[in-house]
Design brief:
99 residues; alpha+beta; Alpha-Beta Plaits; three-stranded antiparallel sheet; 6 strands
Length: 99
């Protein structure tokens, strides 16, 4: 699964963009008490909130996270000069045993 980071411009992403690198791991954090979307999944890099999984993708990812699936999430695009919604893209894969 590949998607752009939603809300990048409104969180810490722009402040830390110079330290972000392609291939860098990100953490997916469910936010069931989010007032805008109870299925929201926050994206963090070293504990810094850089945006969200887009709504179109958060339902299947949320189900996998709730089931305890081991997901690997990484930045697959870091392009500061791109349009705000395309600066960062994340790739998520299911981590297999021994992976």
């Amino acid at each position: 699964m590949v998607f752009p980071v939603a809300g990048y411009a409104f969180h810490e992403g722009p402040r830390i963009i110079d330290g972000l690198r392609k291939g860098q791991e990100v953490t997916l954090v469910p936010e069931p008490h989010n007032g805008f979307d109870p299925r929201a999944i926050r994206i963090e890099v070293h504990g810094r909130h850089i945006g969200y999984v887009p709504r179109s993708e958060n339902r299947p990812l949320g189900r996998l996270l709730a089931q305890g699936a081991e997901l690997r999430a990484r930045l697959i695009r870091v392009q500061p000069e791109a349009e705000k919604w395309e600066v960062l893209r994340v790739g998520v894969s299911l981590r297999m045993r021994g992976d």
